[in-house]
Model the fold of this input.
Amino acid sequence: MTPDRLRLAVPNKGRLLEPTLRLLRDAGLEFEDQSRALVSHAENVPLDILHVRTEDIVELVGDGVADLGITGTNLLAEADVQLPVRLELGYGRCRLEAAVPVDDEAVSFEQLAGRRLATSHPATTRRFFGERGIDVAIVPLSGSVEVAPRLGLAEGIVDLVSTGSTLIMNGLRSVGCLLESQAVLVGRPSAVARRDATVDEVVTVLGAVVAGRRRKYLMMNAPRRALSAIEAILPGLASPSVIPLAHDDMVAVHAVVEDADVWRMLPPLRAAGASGILVVPIEKLVP
Ligand code: AMP
Done:
């Protein structure tokens, strides 16, 4: 590790490991697959990747050991250090939820007053209920939170949920969501000046990958007279590109659209006269 290289801390195991390495590769960073080693060096950018425990990343960035880090919003909320979020990365999505046994009568946060809540997120839970004036007792646990009610340790839990199947398997039911979480890129509050340009580069390129993943490039041919109907269906990032074709009165229309809208757009585009419609992935998008 040399001092003039930027340091990015990433998870070395767990749920965020694979999607994080995929993001770095999709961004075009070339590095050896050394996720078992502590450090790997990017070959094409002055950047060292520190492979560390997910739970340690906020602290390492806060202490200045790393300039940037990838972690979950939930871990950021739980830490003492306040770090600026430079990018939301769109994976590792989960919710921090309060839950009680299925036969419990509580259906709101207020009805949890006076309960013991087991959680591996004590600071976030304390803050959430404190801000609402609801008095709960926190039972801090580092894992297996969902079994606490059955063991008689607590009357409810606050835990991370993505599909909800762990709650169901443990005879629990959600009462509400305290926090929505996803993977985020965090930075040091004040990055050393000489490294700022590289920090901005990393933010721009990772941001371009995340933005590209959410969108598709749509190409189609259409008779020129269908153009206004087609334009009305395509909101796009900006106005679509319209390119004349060799055959009379035919044009090619290209546009960038939200991935989530493609499904809804295809039938009306076809009905409006578009043909040869291609939906193409976008590797990177810099707005
Ligand atoms: P790990 O414990 O190392 O597998 O990573 C846990 C991190 O992954 C959490 O802190 C969250 O940011 C994220 N995550 C995403 N979905 C879930 C989930 N269903 N349960 C726990 N963590 C999740």
